[in-house]
TrEMBL record:
The keyword Aminoacyl-tRNA synthetase does not apply. This is Putative helitron helicase-like domain-containing protein. Residues 148-276 form the Helitron helicase-like domain. One of its GO terms (molecular function) is helicase activity. Signal peptide: none annotated. InterPro entries: Helitron_helicase-like. It comes from Senna tora. Keywords: ATP-binding, Helicase, Hydrolase, Nucleotide-binding. The lineage of its organism: Eukaryota, Viridiplantae, Streptophyta, Embryophyta, Tracheophyta. The keyword Metal-binding does not apply. It holds the Pfam family Helitron_like_N.
Amino acid sequence: MGITPSHLSASTTCPFCGARLLLHESSDFCCLNGRISLPTMPVPPELLSIYNDEIKVANGGEVVYLFRTQGAIYHKIAIIVGGEEAGQLNGRDIVVQSNSSHLMNVSDTAGYYDPLQYPLLLPCGTYGRDVNTQNGVALRTKVTCRDYYSFMLQIRDGRDNLLLRGCRLLQQYAVDIFLKMETQKFRWVRNNQSKIRAEMYNGLQDSFEAGINISGHLGRRIILLYSIVGCPRDMSERFQDAMRVVGVSGRPDLFLTMTCNPSRDEIRDLLLPGQLPQATIHTFKGNDDKLNSSDVYNQIVKAEIPLQSDQPELYTSVLKHMIHGPCGTINPRSPCMQKGKCKRHFTKPFVPYTVQANDCYPLYQRRDMGQVPIGRV
């Protein structure tokens, strides 16, 4: 019994900007259906060869001065990101030392912030987005932070993009961009409380009428829009939606985490090095399809290594991609180890048959199948 092969849907190309679009992605995602047009970044062939050959950049020669700390390569720049309150968003404290040894502050909204912070990704000093960045089309309108970076981070056939070859540096760059967008969003909310009619929500008058006049309980309150992910209004709305779904459909039957295999041809053709898509899915089944017995669980969930003689392909895939560890006393430095124990509770005990519990995860069947060679297959 083998594995039924499946194939990803073919990607398409945006007719306006040439970006590669995966299934369910539209041209509104990359260039707002042609309304965004920005110049491409220059790609020095020497630096491109370094990325292609995975050569580590070190100090010396005529390269830009770099230094390594805590395993990461940095330019001569210091950034401190603090947990500021919404009413005190004065920007990050970014200090740059010039060639003349003078220190100068740089705003994270300045266009030259990006090449100063990421010289390996922007070696030609290409400006990032600032408040005056304009669209390249005829309308010459200003471009938002999200639209700018969404356009610049797209995969376009025939055009090399150093940003997408940065691997972990790209991840840091993406987090920095996200922080920049969120900070600007909070600044707008702080400065436009009258436009969102915050006086209808702040409740200060109610506090006075209730007799709460302690200075620690009063102050300038910033009302956040419900569209800001993680704010109290957003979390309350999500909670109510989740409770409504559970009230109508019952509790979730399956919790699936799916990670694409980067060794597949379809993945290798579409992704650049360092990219790996992942999805987490909650599945609700109808009343007639509920998982209500151990036999039904065994038809859907397999928690033991299959027999090589019965399912050779599945056996090879499980050993290659789905084995946890080694950890415990064999490898106490494993990332899963906390206080001398595996936080994922491996190794798990053998279970002769699946046991269904009332209010917790079932104990899946995990029989002792003998010794299995663990390692790359």
